[in-house]
Design goal:
- The chain has helices at about 1-15, 25-55, 65-100, and strands at about 110, 115-120, 125-130, 135-140, 145-155, 155-165, 175-185, 190, 195-205, 215, 220, 225-230.
- It is α+β, with helices and mostly antiparallel strands and about 230 residues long.
- The chain folds into 2 domains: about 1-100; about 110-230, Sandwich (Immunoglobulin-like), CATH 2.60.40.4070.
- Strands 1, 3, 6, 9, 10, 11 and 12 form a 7-stranded antiparallel beta sheet that branches.
- A hairpin with a 5-residue loop joins β7 and β8.
- α1 runs antiparallel to α2 and α1 runs parallel beside α3.
- The N and C termini lie far apart (about 75 Å).
């Protein structure tokens, strides 16, 4: 009898051992587990009833093991209900994220990043310096080749940088993606942290990603990277 009960409980332990990562997987697995639990519990009650009917009156059955099995069944059932509730909460959260992401479509967003597009001879970046410093600004094309480099004196705070698409020798570079890097030092020669941001129109939203990503200038950004949003026409 104990071996039979152990066999019955094995599928239950397997069902609760791994938490699925996707909402659809949670829902499907929970439904399958519920069926397994119901079938196992039915078999368990049948075995229990049969054992009780056929027990020796002079040597009654020890019910401790059955009690423990009943407790285990109850615990597993409660865990499955919790999993179902969690999957519902995840689905609600994902729907909220998708709705929020869709609201950015067509807007001009400023995001943390260093790569922007050169279009019609103009590429723009915004950067923020912790303190006044001497900085070297390098711009590279999509293949990683250096196309522009110059030294500047920058102030503390946020400031804009616009590049006309020309290299140090006057070469005019084609439209495309360009990445800016800045290395800076203060008057004492200590490194100064400088963060960069880029702006662009949110062309599309990828709702298949988790969380959803915004497509800005051919690049993907999550909503937490957005620093500023300007609605169309403003």
């Amino acid at each position: 009898m104990a071996d039979a009960l152990a066999t019955l409980m094995n599928p239950v332990a397997s069902a609760t051992g791994t938490a699925p990562s996707k909402t659809a997987g949670v829902t499907t697995k929970t439904a399958t587990d519920a069926t397994t639990i119901a079938n196992n519990f039915e078999t368990f009650l049948t075995l229990l009833t049969t054992q009780l009917k056929n027990q020796n009156p002079l040597d009654p059955l020890d019910t401790n093991q059955f009690t423990q099995q009943l407790v285990q069944f109850t615990q597993v059932e409660q865990q499955m209900k919790l999993n179902t509730q969690m999957s519902s909460l995840i689905a609600i959260e994902q729907a909220a994220q998708s709705t929020a992401a869709m609201a950015y479509l067509g807007s001009t967003a400023t995001v943390d990043g260093a790569t922007t597009k050169l279009e019609s001879g103009s590429a723009k970046w915004t950067f923020t310096a912790d303190k006044p410093s001497s900085a070297t600004i390098n711009i590279k094309n999509s293949t990683g080749a250096l196309v522009y480099s110059a030294n500047y004196t920058v102030n503390a705070g946020q400031q804009n940088f616009q590049w006309d698409g020309r290299g140090n020798t006057g070469t005019k570079y084609p439209d495309g993606d360009y990445t800016m890097t800045i290395s800076a030092k203060d008057a004492s020669g200590n490194a100064v942290a400088i963060s960069t941001q880029v702006s662009g129109v949110v062309d599309s939203v990828d709702l298949n990603a988790t969380p959803p990503t915004l497509q800005i200038g051919g690049q993907s950004f999550t909503a937490d990277k957005i620093k500023k949003v300007v609605r169309p026409g403003l």
